[in-house]
Task: structure prediction
Amino acid sequence: MSQLTNEQLERYSRHIILEQVGGKGQKKILSAKVLIIGTGGLGAPAAMYLAAAGVGHIGLVDFDTVDLSNLQRQIIHLTNDVGKAKTQSGRETINAMNPDVQVHAYDEQVTAANIRDIIGDLDYDFIIDGTDNFPAKFLINDACVLMRKPFSHAGIIRFQGQTMTYVPDKSPCYRCVFPKMPPKDAVPTCRQAGVLGVMGGVIGTIQATEALKFVLGIGELLTGYLLTYDALTMTFRKIKIPRNRRCNICGEQPTITELFDYEQPTCSFGR
Amino acid sequence: MIVKVNGENFSAEKSLNIDELLAAVKADQPEYVTVQLNGEFVERADFPKTFLKDGDEIEFLYFMGGGQLVATDK
Result:
């Protein structure tokens, strides 16, 4: 790989002086490919920190446009971006932050029909689930398990968040913990929940940290654990999670061998 | 019986099974919670016959989305 330029040596100097990173690690970051699915509360801060770190290729997947109500937490989007495609708005912010980063935009919703192509487009090294709905979370898990791709799962709600990292063969997957989605007609409470804006910053930044650790091959990933965070009591808990032998996708006798879409439970939310 | 539920002590007069514990702690949407007992997942069908004893550590794990449907423990 080519040498770091003088500008890069300066830009990434605080990385380079880290023993565990160095110039060699920074070059790994510069050639890394990370896919971020959902550029919302979680994906926005994750994308920004990865862009600042110099991740060479960042894929952004989102089908939505920026809404005024997004700006309280989705910090990659600015007031002037309201109405713009989120992938476009994200691309502009990242381009302004760091010219070393190439943004690859996928202006669509992930489905069983397209997710393999999206992940396979650049043969991404690591995937960040920054989505806001369960069908997407199960789909991302299933695609990553079947395609043998590491990914970071996360969810945030109100003052709580949780995250876990999956690495093929080494750790439990999301379905080990949550085997299946509640049937859509059996969801007893269906309400729009609020979220403190900073929750995505805390958890999304942890996801970005996991991506960087994976790329650098340093430290211990959040594999085999579910990290939960309660902002009101400022409590982090790291709950050990075993692999589930009976897991229906990564267990001993998997029943899920093809991707499929769950229906999004229907709720009518007031705005 | 004193057990730990999500890291906090919980005491009851007698040994409870997991269904009874879910009711006793007023778990929200107990039908969707994933239960771990001393680090191992417990099958839903085994909830009624799994009785807890002193010192057991139980984790209730919940789905967490991004602002849509959710169960929480409060």
